[in-house]
Design brief:
Length: 174
């Protein structure tokens, strides 16, 4: 709401014009404001009765800018790699984003402006995780060796951070 008030433009248009289109993220859309991309998967939640399809239980657009973007692992990976390589924001803006503040969340001990610093087996990475009805995600950029790991899971009650951690071990292998 702040960015809309400051710019006078809709958040969907700003995301498309400033972040998605310049970097050719063609498999990402802002739910409720743009057409869905083809090939979407369904989201599930586990219950005593088995796995329930909750894809349309709650419209993702309800989360608006806090989770209304729908994307692929390729687009998310490219976004975080580009962001942390300084291709999305100017160096001073990226530095401001990484002005870490300690949190009480054990999974994400340091948080900046829209990104978090997390340690995976002694190696620092920067990115974010999240979940919305039927889906969970995590994407983190490592610098040594340089790699970005993104995990999207179409089951809400999962731990994509654990999967990122497991995959980060592969980066360390000789």
């Amino acid at each position: 709401m702040i960015v809309e008030a400051v710019t006078g433009e809709a958040a969907a248009a700003l995301l498309r014009d400033r972040i998605l289109d310049p970097e050719q993220r063609t498999h990402t859309y802002f739910d409720g404001y743009e057409e869905a991309v083809p090939g979407l998967v369904r989201g599930y939640d586990k219950s005593d009765a088995g796995y329930l399809d909750v894809t349309w239980t709650v419209d993702p657009s309800l989360a608006w800018t806090a989770g209304g973007l729908v994307s692929t692992t390729a687009d998310i990976t490219k976004f975080y790699a580009d962001l942390l390589d300084g291709k999305v924001r100017a160096p001073a803006e990226l530095q401001e984003m990484m002005g870490w503040v300690d949190t009480m969340a054990p999974g994400l001990p340091k948080y900046g402006l829209g990104i978090a610093e997390h340690e995976f087996d002694g190696r620092l990475a920067v990115g974010h995780d999240g979940a919305i009805w039927g889906f969970a995600s995590a994407s983190f950029h490592f610098t040594d060796p340089e790699a970005t790991v993104s995990v999207l899971i179409n089951l809400e009650d999962t731990n994509p951070m654990r999967v990122v951690g497991d995959l980060s071990k592969v980066l360390q292998a000789p």
